[in-house]
Amino acid sequence: VEIFNLKVPDDYHVHLRQGPMLRFIVGELLKKGFWGRVLAMPNTDPPILTARDALNYRREIDGALAESSPRYGGPFKPLMTIQITEQTTPEMIREAHLAGVVGGKIYPRDVTTNSENGVVDYAKLYPVFAEAEKLGFIVLFHGEHPSREIEGLKKSAAFLNILWPIVRDFPGLRLTLEHISTRDEVEWVRLQKEGQVLATIPPHYATCVLDDVLGYNQPRGRRPHANISLICKPALKTRDDRAALQEAIFSGDKRFAYGSDLAPHLFPAKCEGACGVYNLEAGLPAVIDLAHNNEHLVVDHNRIDILNRFLSVNGALFYGQGFTRDKISFQRKSEEVPRKIAAFVPGSDWPEPHPDRLIVPWKNGEPTNWQFVGRKG
Ligand SMILES: [Zn+2]
Prior knowledge:
The chain has twelve helices and 14 strands.
């Protein structure tokens, strides 16, 4: 049997949500057992805006961690963020930094889930950028241009016009460009200083294109339906963009790291078009498959080394996290992703499975080629 032994990966972009969904998701993450650090996104409802919000959110996550016992051992460590809005002050950045929050995330207004208080005028944030630069507080960007004049598929590349002046005016600011989806962004990131800029790449952006969302080129015998499990923002793009993302992952470049953008929505919300992909089952197997099938990386040692960099080393270096010695293993074995996953937590407001509380995972009903074997300390 072919086996991939990897360093325990980190996930630098996860939506843990709140309430019963948070308790469910934390339990699922623990059951999988394959994460070291998990960076929690702040676009909850209501959002995480201050140091105090982040500490309360951390307590909620810790509570959920305590009530779930890991099946494979090795709980993850949550890393906290706040959301930066046009109302955020330098003082709020200082307080968040002192509270151990690692960074602040900026959403473009009204583009994605819970982004109503997102930013339109990035120049208004200059005092905040100055403070973040001084403290080494990381600024995370959802990189889509907020202008309604710019078409959705062009918003990612257009956002680089907003980022250029920011890196010029704040050369010491450390920032991330989240869930990159285009060749333009890959090229932009490569032009920035190592250690200053990090880009996260989710597994579905690295392996799928917009055609997969719209239901083109399905395997024979499958209906040409659109795939609601893959609807997300930024939108998936073209084959050329996907090729650029794969090149970035397998270049070993320190500026690219794994961030799943795990974003659970219940089935009724998904049917209404909610954006976000549930990729906890299929995400890591998809990336391992990519490495396994990548003809440019013939030497096995290289392949593992490069994967480790993308999945754990690059992000840990950027976020100043230490290295753990834990390893995880995947073996080559077909395993079907459930068609639907019931979200429930005994003792919560969602005490048992319910038809309105199902999650449709990415690759539902399809096989993945890699099965998680376990984690060793
Ligand atoms: Zn996200």
